[in-house]
Description:
The protein is of the alpha/beta class.
Amino acid sequence: MNSQIDTVVLPLDRSALSERAIPIAREYASRSKSSVVLLSVPHADSGYESVFSDTQIGIAGAEIQQALERLDEKAQERTRGYLQYRAESLADSGLRAETRTCLGAPAAVIAGVAEEYPGSMIIMATHGRGGVRRWMLGSVAEKVLHFTKRPIMLVPAAAEPVPQTVGRIMVALDGSRLAERSLATATRWARTFAAALLMVHVAPDFGEMARASSMPLLEFEERYLEWLRSYFTGVQERLGLDDLDVTSEVLPGGWVVDSLLARSASAAVDVIIMSSHGHGGHAPWALGSVAARVARSAIVPVLIVPTRETD
């Protein structure tokens, strides 16, 4: 997996909600000296396509089809102008920015464009809307998460305010090496923003696991916590985190998503970082589903690191 991030892919659909991803993308690019790719997948803003079905368009002949094509061309022109305006604004801040206007299914386009840049990361808002063929960025974001091999930060509509800088990062670990792949990204963000790093692990149901192991509950809990202390220490030593402000915590057992969201709120973290998949032998989180659920309900940006191999 490429551990160097030098390009931020920023999808925009011309809506105010999609623009909520701009501040943190700009700040990260500025601090990390990354370039920014402003990307949009334009569609016609007319209501014709919601009025006429494909069958009706076929019956009406070429006139309606030509009208729709002209509307698509106008949408592309407006989108190119919009992206150029945004690129100039970033350039005024000293950033390198380019624009991409592509046709196709938004999720596939976003994932595909990110693949063109080996050291890329996607930063996008969720629940943005633009035009009649609305992106519905909530569902688009989840589709991108499914397809992409690049780290993807999802900035929720509920984030208030959207952070422009990062003071504290929470990274979720389940004890597996797959989950640990998020740590390289987390440490990079921590160093980029000089942020504190909080490593958390949600404890299992000790009673259930003790019964399964035929071990007394107290003994099982003590052994588990001893293993976890050793695990956290080993992670810090392997990654060389002595230069960072790092703390580790064991969160109460229960529903993993609720535990992570509650701690992110009480610890006033600015970003949650986690792997898209993980399955620790000691804590069966099934991180793939956990990451998606955390992203749906979080009120801070969630940066998800896919565990499939990248360039």
